[in-house]
Amino acid sequence: MRDPRHRCPHHRGQSLVELALILPLLCVMLLGAADFARALSAYITLGNVAREGAHYGSMSPANAQDLAGIRDAALQEADNAIFGVTPTIIAEVGNEVFRDPSNTPFQYIRVEARYEFRPLFAFPPFRSFTMSRVVQMRVLPGY
């Protein structure tokens, strides 16, 4: 009678070969998931940066003209960098077509934040790309 532990001696290395074949795929999937999580985190932070800049600019007409203050308030939200890269902040002031009861147009502040995302695991279809978030808020009238 045969020993049940050694039914097929020629299959002894099968598990090691299977591991060697699947391990690179598992590593790629793990790194891809990590990069996706980093990209999602950067996108959310970028939205917060743009929102904070627009909020600062919307507090008064004087703040809406203070582009350096808008930029500082926005960058302070992200501690001046997202994964070590400082986002670009672009702010502009404009007038809406809607008017208040005194027939004065409402003023708005529009802040765009851009960020160049560089993945940890860059391969041809997924190289660095630019993320952008835009926030527009109405400027509170000065009293």
Write the layout of secondary structure elements.
Blueprint (H helix, E strand, L loop, with lengths): L13 H45 L2 H5 L1 H11 L10 E12 L5 E13 L11 E10 L5
Antiparallel strand pairs: 1-2, 2-3
Detailed description of the structure:
It comes from Sphaerobacter thermophilus (strain ATCC 49802 / DSM 20745 / KCCM 41009 / NCIMB 13125 / S 6022). This is TadE family protein. By secondary structure, this protein is α+β, with helices and mostly antiparallel strands. The protein has one domain. The protein has three helices and three strands; from the N terminus they run H-H-H-E-E-E. Strands 1-2-3 form a three-stranded antiparallel beta sheet. Helix 1 runs antiparallel to helix 3. The longest helix has 45 residues. The N and C termini lie far apart (99 Å).
**How are helices and strands ordered from N to C?**
HHHEEE
Strand fraction: 15-25%
- Computed over alpha carbons, the radius of gyration is 27 Å
Distance between the termini: 99 Å
Low-confidence stretches: none
| Percentage of residues assigned to helices | 40-55%
The overall pLDDT, averaged over residues, is: 87
Order of strands, widest sheet: 1-2-3
Please, how many domains? 1
Number of helices: 3
Extended strand count: 3
Structural class of the secondary structure composition? alpha+beta
- Main β-sheet, in a few words? 3 strands, antiparallel
Shape: rod-shaped
Quaternary structure annotation: single chain
InterPro entries: TadE-like_dom
Domain TadE-like: 13-54
Protein name: TadE family protein
